[in-house]
Specification:
Strand order of the largest sheet: 1-2-5-4-3-6
Radius of gyration: 15 Å
CATH class: Mainly Beta
Order of helices and strands: HHEHEEEEEH
Protein name: riboflavin kinase
CATH architecture: Beta Barrel
InterPro entries: Riboflavin_kinase (IPR023468), Riboflavin_kinase_bac/euk (IPR015865), Riboflavin_kinase_dom_sf (IPR023465)
Enzyme class: transferase
Number of domains: 1
Catalytic activity: riboflavin + ATP = FMN + ADP + H(+)
Structural class: alpha+beta
EC number: 2.7.1.26
Number of helices: 4
Strand content: 25-35%
Length: 152
């Protein structure tokens, strides 16, 4: 029955097995949330991100994902982080949009975050330079995976 499917899907998601979850759902897994204020570190030191509050949703395994961030107006290719930020030890869902934005997003604005591909598990970095290098690699990998996803 449906209960069996739900627990199976949650099991797949908790192990970042997006493909299996998609087979059961018939679509990519997604969550919805509203934009909340981040700590401002990304836009200053790293890469600007949108921070989402997705309370009430089952979240896949913590890690870094190639994602699609959907507003009411547009779908943006993105790379997303789920997990505890090493900078402040708080749990966060952060998405970096992989294109130049001609707009800003308001706190309280709602987005859907669609998970396309799991990139890697979270790791701690000794300094911001190492973290920035890894994020640069994540962005390249996400771009490539999302480009291939377009071609399907």
């Amino acid at each position: 029955g449906i209960g069996v499917h739900a627990s199976l899907i949650k099991d797949f998601l908790s192990r970042a097995n997006l493909q299996k979850a998609k087979e059961f759902l018939g679509r990519n897994y997604s969550i919805k949330g509203k934009v909340i204020k981040g700590q401002g570190l990304g836009s200053k030191e790293l890469f600007a991100t949108i921070n989402l509050d997705c309370e009430g949703y089952f979240l896949p395994q913590n890690g870094v994902y190639a994602t699609l961030l959907k507003s009411q107006r547009k779908t943006y290719k993105s790379v997303s982080f789920l997990g505890v930020r090493s900078s402040d030890e708080n749990f966060a869902i952060e998405s970096h949009i992989l294109e130049e934005l001609g707009e800003n997003f308001m706190q309280g604005e709602f987005f859907e975050l669609e998970f396309i591909s799991f990139l890697r598990e979270n790791q701690k970095f000794q300094d911001l330079k190492k973290l920035k290098n890894q994020i640069t690699k994540d962005i390249e990998q996400a771009r490539e995976l999302l480009r291939k996803n377009d071609e399907r």
